[in-house]
Amino acid sequence: MKFTEFDLDDRLMEAISYMGFEEATPIQEQVIPVIHENRDLIACAQTGTGKTAAYVLPVLNKLAHKTEKGVDTLIIVPTRELAVQIEQQVQGFSYFLSVGSIAIYGGGDGGDWILQKDALINGTDIVIATPGKLLSYLKTGDVHFKNLRHLILDEADRMLDMGFIDDIQAIISHLPKKRQTLMFSATMPKSIRQLAHKILHSPFEISLSVSKPAESIDQKVCLVHEGQKADVLNLLLDERKDYDSILIFTATRRKVFEITNALNKAGHPARGISSDLEQDKREEVLGKFRAKRIRIMVATNVMSRGIDVKEINLVVNYDLPYDAEDYVHRVGRTARVNAKGEAITLLTPMEIGKFAKIEKLIEYEIPRISPPAAAGPTPPWEEVRRTPEKHRPFNKKPRHRRSDRAK
User: Residue 56's closest CA among 23, 24, 86, 18?
Assistant: First the structure.
């Protein structure tokens, strides 16, 4: 389905064309008409399916003819990286419209506080905010949302996982009851349905491509001893010198520092990013990585959903994520927008139980590869075969799905 079929404002269509989008993704095909009808919505779609454009475009289409002052749309997100990413997309799509937007998040200085507060008080059209920071402004009593027409919760499952449920409910208590509420989540646990029941009115439900990596991702797993990981990683990178964008996920902020140092010493220039960095430094690293001025970036799981970088060649799971669904989000950083990419997981015998849960979730046995010979003796794959029956991985091929065509 082409964007010309959605009856969008001509100025919005000009921006869409300028950005190179022609055909809508499946989630956009289903979501845009529902938002046009002013219905509440709960949508389940994984990262990389184009859900941001799915709600931004119809909201901007309404704002193209707005005459009232005040905040019209509030988008609540779990991380500052995602807030910045969405605000950038809003700016791109609204290039030819008289629509203002701002990202509200913590980590800045006093100047940021004043700028953000002024934008809220003066009624910027679209506000993208993290829960805790937005609530701090609401508590001052100077900020209100009496003219708000749209509330959007993006990555609602992640916000609940991060403990933001009370903050979200407190924010909603400040909003008009008459509004259109849209909830997007990569998964649909019971807690999400309970929240939806509280804040949505007769919502339209959409579920699409839940918890399955894109077919264009070349997934692999390599069984290693914990102490071999650094050497194996360096050897794998040596074999992929033509890759210009590599993202490595690890378990802790401390390991980000350790891995980054080890890579630099081995001749693989890398930068790390975690919550230990000041916000301006995080934005600097992410901006350089996005511009291909940094080839290798090492990150914690916070970046698995909060980064939108085109043409990442390789994602490495240096450590397995705690939750199986986070694996999908991590590897989903590559092979975006109908491109191809590679994802390699470094697995230790102690992690076999968690790995089996990942394969069960995605209903696919990830191909096993041997590490480079220079890494030395590695654990035998018989370790996997001794895994209890209930944790045995699936032996299925990925289900065929339509490839995503727009970001």
Answer: 86
User: Any idea where the domains of the chain sit in the sequence?
Assistant: 3-208, 217-391
Query: What are residue 196's phi and psi, to 5 degrees?
Result: -60, -40
CATH architecture for the domain at 3-208: 3-Layer(aba) Sandwich (3.40)
What count of Cα atoms within 13 Å lies in the side-chain half-sphere of residue 329? Answer: 25
| pTM as predicted | 0.68
Q: Among 53, 50, 133, which Cα is nearest to 94's?
A: 53
Helical (H) or strand (E) element with 344: strand 341-347
SS3 content of the chain, % helix, strand, coil (to 5): 40, 15, 40
Would you state the structure tokens that stand for residue 293, as one six-digit string?
Answer: 């001025």
Q: Can you read off the two tokens belonging to residue 92?
A: 């791109």
Residue 401: which pLDDT band, with cuts at 50, 70 and 90? very low
pLDDT tens for 223-244 read 999 999 999 999 999 999 999 9
Rounded Cα distance, 142 and 120, in Å:
9
Nearest to 29 by CA among 405, 311, 339, 286: 405
Residue closest to 99 by CA, chosen among 150, 56, 64: 64
SS3 260: helix
Q: How far is it, in rounded angstroms, from Cα 183 to Cα 26?
A: 17
- Distance (Å, rounded) from C-alpha 213 to C-alpha 333? 10
CB atoms within 10 A of CB 267: 9
Given this chain, do its domains 3-208 and 217-391 carry the same CATH topology? yes
Looking up tokens 């590559």 gives 334
Rounded Cα gap, residues 144 and 76, in angstroms: 15
On whether the 217-391 domain is CATH 3.40.50.300, my answer is: yes
Q: Is 368 helix (H, G, I), strand (E, B) or coil?
A: strand
pLDDT tens-digit profile of 126-170?
999 999 999 999 998 888 899 999 999 999 988 998 899 999 999
